[in-house]
Structure formats: C-alpha cells, structure tokens
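During the second half of the funding period, the structural biology subgroup turned its attention to how the target accommodates small molecules. The most pressing case was 4'-phosphopantetheine, which had performed well in the primary screen but for which no bound structure existed. We therefore specified the complex as follows and requested a full 3D prediction, including the ligand pose.
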Amino acid sequence: MSTALYPGTFDPVTKGHLDVLSRACSLFDRVVVAISEGNNSKDTLFDAPTRVRLVEENLGEHPNASVESFCGLLVDYAMEKKASVLVRGLRAVSDFEYEFQMAQMNRHLDSNIETIFLMPNEKYFYTSSQLIKQVHLFGKRETDLVPENVLSALREINRFDRGEDPV
Ligand code: PNS
C-alpha cells in the first residue's frame, strides 16, 4: 500500500491545498495531511486542533485521506506513518527555491523518502494562506479561494476583532 504525506502549516487550508490533495489522493492508496504544530502557537492564526478540523471537514470526497498534526521533524513523522513520499504543491517559480531546499534537506535526513511536487489548477496559482489572511482580516473583503468552513472561521475572527457577539 502506497502512503504519502501531504505536509504543511495549513493556516488556514485553501482551495489550492484541497486541489493538490485531490490530485495526491488519485495517485496514492493513502494520503495523510500532516499539519505542522510549529514551535510557537502564536505564529499561526489558528491553533493546531482548529487547522486539523478545518481540513477534516473537507475530506468528504476523499475516503483515502486523513489528517493529523505533528511536531518535530517531518522525516521522523513520515517514518512513523510508514510513508515514503512527501507531496508538496508547487505554484510558481518563486516557490521553487524554498521547496528545493526543503526537499534536499529531507533527502539528506532520510534518503528513502522522495518528495514529489504537484501543480494545482492554474486558477489557484496565486492563492496562499498568507495572502488570504491579509485579504480577509485587514479589510472588509472576502474571497472564494477558501472552503466554506474556513470562510466562516475567518468571519468569526473578524467579528471578535470588531468586538461583536459571536453567531
Ligand atoms: O505550509 P508550509 O509552511 O510551507 O509547510 C512547511 C513544513 C511544515 C512542511 C515544514 O516547515 C516542515 O517540514 N516542518 C517540520 C520540521 C522539519 O522537518 N524541518 C526540516 C524540513 S527541511
């Protein structure tokens, strides 16, 4: 059985991530979305359990996918999950250098693990969690680049920031 990890911060998950996940699910028997807990919860907008839930609620179409959070090194987690492939989404040339360094470091740490890159549909080439957070939280605009549950979670944070009652 082929198992792949799809690792990332997913703060929050976007439709671009889900597009890559869907491609990975058609290539591997099992795909584990591996959400990095990071070193400091203050570095992310959503805490790890919330990031896991926001992905989990979008796995309906993918019975061979699951989601978990991890801490520590990705290669150790991959070994624990018996995964020999790491899937990363690649959007633009600007992603390449960071991805190349990570892939090489992970190969240095464990030569049995391969990183493969999947391109999302081109309509998501400019979608990033970072930009989504800016658009949704710095003003009053919204995008349709995130799934419905993420949209609600971002709206909830906006209401809280404005001192309004939760719905
Ligand atoms: O979505 P991101 O933030 O680009 O994902 C980066 C992530 C979480 C995949 C990367 O930071 C990671 O693997 N973190 C775990 C720690 C680790 O293994 N670091 C060495 C890899 S080069």
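Two results from this model are relevant to the next phase. The mean pLDDT is 94. Residues 3-125 form a domain with the Rossmann fold fold (CATH 3.40.50.620).
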